[in-house]
Amino acid sequence: MLYDDNNIFAKILRGELPCEKVLENDYALAFNDIAPQAPIHILVIPKRPYESASQFLQNAADQELVAFQRLVGEVVSLKEIHDSGYRLISNTNRNGHQEVPHYHVHVLGGRDLGRMVF
Ligand code: AMP
């Protein structure tokens, strides 16, 4: 599948749409989800175009993979949710109900998130 350059996150990365930026580094950007499902709901996205977790994990350079994961860690530190706990989610494709076809990790925290849904 070809990456869709017109997806919302691609537009955010090009500066065509605004976002509430939380953190960034050379390879990844973290911003608040527009429809938060928890008191803390942040999306972390790679700056390069990958449509899904699998595309990213299979094709990103080591440096990119590390920078992305580090940014997730920095979001957790910044929001001080390590001790209370949090959840990382990557919805992928149809069964995963991925709405935006640019890889992203949801960082959710700030309340009891309940048990994982199967
Ligand atoms: P997913 O189902 O994993 O693809 O989730 C996409 C997420 O993107 C949802 O949680 C949306 O609320 C969020 N979202 C959609 N548009 C925006 C936007 N312009 N800024 C921030 N978050 C957005």
In short:
This protein is an alpha+beta fold and 118 residues long. The chain has helices spanning 8-13, 53-59, 62-79; strands at residues 21-24, 28-32, 40-46, 86-89, 105-109. It has 3 helices and 5 strands.
Describe this structure in words.
By secondary structure, the chain is of the alpha+beta class. It is built from three helices and five strands. The longest helix has 18 residues, at 62-79. It is globular and about 40 Å long. The chain starts with 7 loop residues before the first helix and ends in a 9-residue tail after the last strand. The model has no long low-confidence stretch (mean pLDDT 97). The protein binds adenosine monophosphate (AMP). Adenosine monophosphate is lined by residues 8, 17, 19, 33-35, 43, 91, 97-100.
Break the fold down into its secondary structure elements and pairings.
Layout: H1 8-13, E1 21-24, E2 28-32, E3 40-46, H2 53-59, H3 62-79, E4 86-89, E5 105-109
Antiparallel strand pairs: 1-2, 2-3, 3-5, 4-5
Bound molecules: adenosine monophosphate.
